[in-house]
Amino acid sequence: GDNTKAAIIRMGLKEMMKYGDTFYPGGDPGTYLESCGVADLITTCYGGRNRRVSEAFVTSKKSLAELEEEMLAGQKLQGPETAAEVNHVLQARGLQEQFPLFTAVHQICTGQIEPGQLVGALKDHSALNM
Question: For 121, how many CA atoms within 13 A lie in the half-sphere containing its CB?
Answer without folding.
Answer: 22
